[in-house]
Amino acid sequence: MRDPARREHTPDAAREARLVSIRREAEKKGRLVEQGVRPKGAPFPKASPETGYYGIPLLKEPQWTWEIPVYFFVGGAAGAAALIGALAKVTGKDEGLARDARLVAAGGGILSTGLLISDLGRPERFLNMLRVFKIQSPMSVGAWVLALFGSSAGAAAFAQVVDDRLKIGPVRVLGNVAEGFSAAMGLPLATYTGVLIGATAIPAWNHNVKTLPIHFGMSGLGAGVSVLELMGHDDSPALNVLGIGASAVESYEGVQLEFKRDSVNRPLKHGLTGWTTRLGSVLAGPVPLALRIIASASGSRRLRRAAAWSSIAGSILTRVGWIYAGHESARDWRIPLQIKETPSTPELTSRRDIPQMRAG
Amino acid sequence: MSTSTDFETGHSGHTTAFLTDSTLCIGCKACEVACKEWNGVSADGFDWSGFSYDNTGHVGHSTWRHVKFVEGDPQPGFGGNSGETISWEFSSDVCKHCEVAGCLEACPTGAITRMEFGAVYVQPDICNGCSYCVVACPFGVVQKNVEDGRAFKCTFCSDRQRVGLEPACAKACPTQSIKFGEINELRNEAQDRLQELRARGIEDATVYDPQDTSVGGIHSIFLVRGDPRTYNLPPKPEVPTIYLKDGWRSAGIAAGMMVVAGLAAFLSTPSKNGKRLEGAAR
Ligand code: SF4
Ligand code: SF4
């Protein structure tokens, strides 16, 4: 095809009149002010106080792999399980539960470490975390907490197995000490992840730093309860009470978020990440809450199990939703640039087309 | 790095800085090339971004100096024969080497450290690629190279500074748009330049040097024209450690809730020890 600019035109009256008016203006003013021809693709992206630098994100997106949200879930459930086991034992209410809780905590500790190593790429890289202890770095605090939790929970589970077969008194005592320590470490393990993402430059995360640790802690508690129930403790009344408590707080957190209207929270409420977060909240909050209340009245184990599955799914989705909402939030240049949205503010576009955004 | 203990004492005395003057920048990208050559930084790949002459987009793990091509609104009536012209500025971006650096605070391995002249430096032999610094930087500078597995950013040419040389970018810049020197001298120089530009009728010249935020000042000062947001320079960068207090308080509340709820749950319900065998048999 021929270049459209060089196409032959058929003269007509309108175009002739236009040429005359151009000549008149040139004669009158000595110069001509016109917009000219806009090439294809115009208007071009621009840099301005309303669009920032072409709308290229100011912040970098998180670069964690899928292992990290899963680790948040596993660590939360394992930490809560250690606490539940220790309390079952201290109160003398449920030896069997305490026994299984030790196994869940130890298994969760191993799995968590595995997930972190898999995110880092090589096992020795995890050891670099234990080179220093930095109180101002939640990542450092968390690595130490996980290391201490994993080893004490592992020791407690090992002591359990040895004691069951050989009945050695000192081993039992050491096992109990390790169990107590793992419960104490389980508390920060289940909650620090909220601080970890809250204390960052990502607006959707740091905006919610006051509630995230509670949200994640309760999510972990619900998941820990649920895992133990699915291991056969679905007749434990204490677990049901705990499950009701956790899902009640999760329902409250979900409702709270729904009422927040600021644009910072948009990735938590809209789009794929918003709906993932919301689905997580529903599955970890109102659904198990209702099922558990009915179950405690009717004594139905099937409902308890359904509630447990719902809590676990909700807990995973909550972490996945929050992490990916952080990606979404990092792409919104308007928040860190303090650009007020007006009707003329351009739509947020994904800038995956920029070379480095793709290469990561 | 570990051969010298000087670096662990923090920066004292002579603090160095960059002053990047966008009114002098001609967009030649000599700084980008010099940086890549001196530091052996890998290629960015070659893709057209469609954003003026900027095909890298932003600073990142393989772009430590990044020249921004800031194309503004067309201004009708100012283009001679073309009828309109666009405003077109260039500005070479770089790590801000923050006084209180989010990346440094967040790094769990101690890989990110402060050099004696104030630079924020990632020690590549210690970084384990956790990428926590990436979400802790309020300027979106440091980035993990996924293929390599570690985080990278401008080193402030620490190796050159140690032997008394200026950074490669400053040396290669043909227009002295990138100035390097002692920070207070550069701050004065920035003010002088600002006055000079204003006197010449360039009213919209601004110095970007956020000192009254939690970042506490930066060691890469910029002189730009117009609103710094046009250059993706945030008006109020905050170091994320300011959120720690609220976060840990909330974690403490959560832990308290878990313990209280747990105790209440077990103490308020009947013992299950008798029924244990039944449970184990399932
Ligand atoms: S700009 Fe970012 S990468 Fe550079 S010192 Fe500051 S926090 Fe660290
Ligand atoms: S990626 Fe490397 S430099 Fe960044 S926080 Fe982790 S260990 Fe430190």
Would you kindly provide a written description of the structure presented here, covering whatever features stand out?
The complex is a heterodimer of chains A (360) and B (282). Chain A has 360 residues and is mostly helical. Chain A has two domains: 62-199, Formate dehydrogenase/DMSO reductase domain (Formate dehydrogenase/DMSO reductase fold), CATH 1.20.1630.10; 201-336. Helix content of chain A is 69%, strand content 1%. In chain A, strands 1-2 form a two-stranded antiparallel ribbon. In chain A, a hairpin with a 3-residue loop joins strand 1 (47-48) and strand 2. Mean pLDDT of chain A is 88; it is low at 349-360. Chain B is elongated, with a radius of gyration of 25 Å. Chain B has eight helices and ten strands. Chain B has two domains: 4-238, Alpha-Beta Plaits, CATH 3.30.70; 242-281, no CATH class. Classes of the chains: A mainly alpha (360), B alpha+beta (282). Chains A and B meet through strand 1, strand 2, helix 2, helix 3 and helix 4 of A and strand 2, helix 2, helix 3, helix 7 and helix 8 of B. The structure holds iron/sulfur cluster (2 copies). Residues 95-98, 101-103, 120, 137, 139, 141-142, 153 of chain B line the site of one iron/sulfur cluster (SF4).
Compact overview of the structure:
The complex is a heterodimer of chains A (360) and B (282). By secondary structure, chain A is mainly α.
Helices and strands in order:
The complex is a heterodimer of chains A (360) and B (282).
Chain A: H1 13-29, E1 47-48, E2 52-53, H2 67-90, H3 95-120, H4 123-128, H5 138-166, H6 169-198, H7 203-206, H8 212-233, H9 237-259, H10 266-269, H11 271-284, H12 286-298, H13 301-331, H14 355-359
Antiparallel strand pairs in A: 1-2
Helix pairs in contact in A: 2-3, 2-6, 2-8, 2-13, 3-5, 3-8, 5-6, 6-8, 8-9, 8-13, 9-11, 9-12, 11-12, 11-13, 12-13
Chain B: E1 16-21, H1 30-39, E2 66-76, E3 84-93, H2 102-106, E4 112-114, E5 120-122, H3 132-136, E6 143-145, E7 150-152, H4 158-162, H5 168-172, E8 178-182, H6 183-199, E9 205-208, E10 220-225, H7 244-267, H8 276-281
Parallel strand pairs in B: 1-10
Antiparallel strand pairs in B: 1-8, 2-3, 4-5, 6-7, 9-10
One iron/sulfur cluster binds at residues 95-98, 101-103, 120, 137, 139, 141-142, 153 of chain B.
